[in-house]
């Protein structure tokens, strides 16, 4: 990731601090053990649906093994977690405790294992869920992973050479790591997924999911005029989400519920971040890691960086997919889609018009387009409040088109994520169509001139 700066801090003092810290850990861990173990899965049973499973005894003898890094009270102090972070953990715990089914969803153990990004050296386990900032967090973890000077604990390092498919070892790693995940309002996550995979230029998704929706789920008269699977509308997409959740057919990890990815009722996550407070949450983690591991990883303005990398990424897509694209839609139409995508996401002001005619667009090269987008984005970023409003406005516009009966079915699909992660099950701006506090904009976010 561009913009990261790393410098290593090495002092003798740090080794001493680490020593003290390990001692504190031992004590903290001892005190908090019952809580820690309460919701750990028993791996040999993992993947079976039914009651939540409880392990009474740790698999390890803490007197001879390295200290756990997971005690709750310890984390509260070391990571400088705010009350809000504690509240998120408590909400999950409360909802899980009330449940009789344990929120397994359709996930199984092997899928979960693939989701987990593990930094053995720092004992960080990250459950990476698509559409919740996972690309950024993976890069961040990658940098942290390689920017450490001294090994904290050689026994741990040694352990990673063990066979990772051995679930006992996996359990070992989970019990001894700081486990983190990030969540996002499910209505926003689905909307973002739609824009990214079906609305904007994405010939791969058009070919697979787009074509699937068109062939399997649409009536003849609803069919978009296409042989490519592009042009799927948001209401059609929502219908697909409802059907695929019901039947389990053609599900997609970008759209399936977050709890299915991470199993928060079986794995007791130490840190729950949210997309809605992403900068604060990722900085909280980074500050803690910098302090704990004696490193100095920083990043510049997160919002600005993601905006630009998105524009560059989309331009790349447009040009890399050009051949496939032009079998479906005009290049100009593709360019409009990435322009609108940036407006929908509140990266580019809706006042900015694509500065080309169709015939001009055909001769614009990649460098020129990136240049133009960069300038337009920089100019737009003067008013971040307006951009945020724009984002909400586009989302309301999309959800207003969904029939009420589908909205009600969708509510049941997203309910577990809402309850577990503290989002409104039926937010006003989507469910109350008479709500006059959100005026409908006359700007047509989803209209493309073909
Ligand atoms: C790892 O463990 C699995 C199951 O226990 C076994 O099938 C596999 O051969 C092992 N791989 C290695 C490299 O030891
Ligand atoms: C995150 O927000 C909390 C509560 O507003 C604040 O106390 C904390 O300092 C913030 N952390 C960072 C790293 O900005
Ligand atoms: C971390 O790096 C930044 C920029 O490279 C520098 O300004 C700062 O002094 C460094 N902090 C420490 C504690 O080394
Ligand atoms: C893109 O077009 C501009 C202006 O026509 C030209 O100066 C530049 O060399 C072109 N870049 C590439 C990579 O073709």
TrEMBL record:
It is found in: Golgi apparatus membrane. The keyword Transmembrane applies. Its main location: Golgi. The chain crosses the membrane at residues 12-31. One of its GO terms (cellular component) is Golgi membrane. Keywords: Carbohydrate metabolism, Glycoprotein, Golgi apparatus, Membrane, Signal-anchor, Transferase, Transmembrane, Transmembrane helix. Its EC number is 2.8.2.-. One of its GO terms (biological process) is carbohydrate biosynthetic process. InterPro entries: Carb_sulfotrans_8-10, Sulfotransferase. It is a single-pass type II membrane protein. GO terms for molecular function: sulfotransferase activity. Coiled coil: none annotated. Belongs to the sulfotransferase 2 family. PANTHER family: CARBOHYDRATE SULFOTRANSFERASE. This is Carbohydrate sulfotransferase. It comes from Mizuhopecten yessoensis.
């Amino acid at each position: 990731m561009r913009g990261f700066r790393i410098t290593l801090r090495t002092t003798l003092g740090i080794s001493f601090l680490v020593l003290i810290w390990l001692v504190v850990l031992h004590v903290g861990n001892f005190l908090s053990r019952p809580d820690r173990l309460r919701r750990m899965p028993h791996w040999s049973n993992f993947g079976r649906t039914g009651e939540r499973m409880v392990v009474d005894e740790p698999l390890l003898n803490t007197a001879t093994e390295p200290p756990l890094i997971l005690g709750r009270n310890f984390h509260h102090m070391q990571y400088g977690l705010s009350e809000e972070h504690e509240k998120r953990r408590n909400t999950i715990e409360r909802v899980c405790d009330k449940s009789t089914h344990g929120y397994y969803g359709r996930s199984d153990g092997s899928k979960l294992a693939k989701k987990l990004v593990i930094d053995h050296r720092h004992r960080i386990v990250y459950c990476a869920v698509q559409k919740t900032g996972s690309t950024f967090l993976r890069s961040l973890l990658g940098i942290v992973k390689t920017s450490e000077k001294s090994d904290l604990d050689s026994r741990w390092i040694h352990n990673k050479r063990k066979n990772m498919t051995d679930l006992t070892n996996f359990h070992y790693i989970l019990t001894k790591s700081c486990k983190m995940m990030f969540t996002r309002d499910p209505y926003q996550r689905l909307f973002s997924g739609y824009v990214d995979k079906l609305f904007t230029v994405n010939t791969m998704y058009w070919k697979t999911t787009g074509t699937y929706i068109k062939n399997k789920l649409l009536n003849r008269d609803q069919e978009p005029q296409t042989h490519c699977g592009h042009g799927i509308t948001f209401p059609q997409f929502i219908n697909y989400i409802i059907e695929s959740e019901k039947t389990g057919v053609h599900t997609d990890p970008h759209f399936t519920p977050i709890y299915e990815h991470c199993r928060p009722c079986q794995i007791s996550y130490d840190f729950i971040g949210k997309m809605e407070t992403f900068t604060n949450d990722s900085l909280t983690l980074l500050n803690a890691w910098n302090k704990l591991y004696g490193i100095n990883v920083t990043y510049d303005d997160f919002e600005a960086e993601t905006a630009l990398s998105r524009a560059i990424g989309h331009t790349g897509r447009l040009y890399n997919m050009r051949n496939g694209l032009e079998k479906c839609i005009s290049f100009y139409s593709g360019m409009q889609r990435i322009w609108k995508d940036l407006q929908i996401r509140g990266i580019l002001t809706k006042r900015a018009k694509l500065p080309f005619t169709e015939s001009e667009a055909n001769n614009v090269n990649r460098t020129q387009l990136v240049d133009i987008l960069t300038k337009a984005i920089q100019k737009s970023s003067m008013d971040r409040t307006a951009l945020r409003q724009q984002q909400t406005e586009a989302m309301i516009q999309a959800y207003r088109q969904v029939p009420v009966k589908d909205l009600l079915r969708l509510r049941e699909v997203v309910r577990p994520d809402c309850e577990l992660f503290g989002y409104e099950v039926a937010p006003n701006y989507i469910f109350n169509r008479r709500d006059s506090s959100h005026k409908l904009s006359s700007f047509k976010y989803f209209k493309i001139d073909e």
